[in-house]
Specification:
Oligomer: single chain
Number of strands: 7
Structural class: alpha/beta
Order of helices and strands: HEHEHEHEHHHHEHHEHHHEH
Helix content: 40-55%
Shape: globular
Length: 292
């Protein structure tokens, strides 16, 4: 169990307010789109930076709870953020403990999708950002691969069940958000306690489609090691990736999604089978459209 919050984290806020709900992830499951949709609702204040990752080591935890409060508008009755880092165990540990210590009555939303599709999109994301150069089959053989770990949905959510009731966690399928957006948003709005009949034409827009991803060319990879390109890391997060995408676009090519043949699918299935079975038992749903 984590120690209680320090007095610095517990002192009264000077402004802002704590969130009333958090989107936990999973990565590449529509969290960016959902964050954008919720920010359009007149009763909701979403954090300006999507991924605060406040409770994750190495991010913003040391800034304290007052900093966290200032990311939300106290004038809005419902407030939230979306940080896929919250379902990235074991890379980030102690998150549920910290979260419950500060936010014992929070509502949690967990977006998921076919575990294999999520894994492949995660890999494509890393390739497009220049984080990954290994072939997918090699990357998957790494012990406790993040690609596998983040697709182990039950392993990730199980850690929260020691601190939060299952009724306070809403499990949503990314495919429903794509194909039945109005009904899915209505369910989410009702879960977090806002008017479920609100609709905005901008809800029709989808964000971060993998089909639009690009990867750096050989020249682009060389440029990434130069000081002018590395200086982009000094830009605030909400501007950094759009700027990098614009800078690298002339030095990139369309990203080809890796093919999952039978042998590679068997490797993935072997690593995810037990977790998928536990997930189906926990949710009471068949997830019959999944490839596992």
């Amino acid at each position: 169990m984590m120690p209680r919050l320090s007095p610095r984290l517990q002192r009264s806020p000077s402004q802002g307010a704590l969130p009333t709900f958090i989107i936990l992830g999973a990565m590449k499951c529509g969290t960016t789109s959902l964050h954008a949709y919720l920010s359009l609702h007149p009763e909701i204040s979403m954090s300006k930076d999507k991924e605060l990752a406040f409770f994750a080591d190495g991010w913003n935890w040391k800034r304290g709870a007052d900093w966290y409060r200032r990311q939300f508008d106290a004038e809005r009755p419902v407030r939230g953020e979306a940080s896929p880092q919250y379902t990235c165990y074991p890379q980030y540990d102690s998150i549920p403990e910290r979260m419950h210590d500060l936010l014992p009555d929070i509502r949690l939303i967990y977006l998921v999708r076919d575990p294999v599709d999520r894994l492949v999109s995660h890999y494509c994301h890393d390739v497009s950002r220049g984080f990954e150069e290994r072939p997918l089959d090699v990357a998957l053989r790494q012990p406790d691969s993040s690609y596998i770990a983040r697709s182990q949905y039950y392993r990730q959510i199980e850690r929260y069940l020691s601190y939060y009731d299952a009724e306070s966690i809403l499990i949503m399928d990314q495919m429903d958000l794509r194909t039945h957006r109005r009904e899915t948003l209505q369910e989410i709005f009702a879960f977090i306690g806002v008017d479920s009949e609100v609709w905005d034409p901008r809800f029709e827009h989808e964000h971060h489609a993998t089909s639009q991803k690009r990867q750096r060319s050989t020249l682009g990879k060389r440029l990434a090691k130069t000081w002018p390109m590395r200086a982009v890391n000094l830009v605030p997060p909400r501007y950094r990736w759009p700027l990098m995408d614009a800078l690298y676009r002339p030095f990139s090519v369309p990203l080809e999604r890796p093919h999952i043949d039978d042998a590679l699918h068997a490797i993935i299935a072997d690593q995810l089978a037990d977790d998928v079975a536990s997930w189906r038992a926990f949710t009471g749903r068949a997830w019959s459209d999944w490839s596992l």
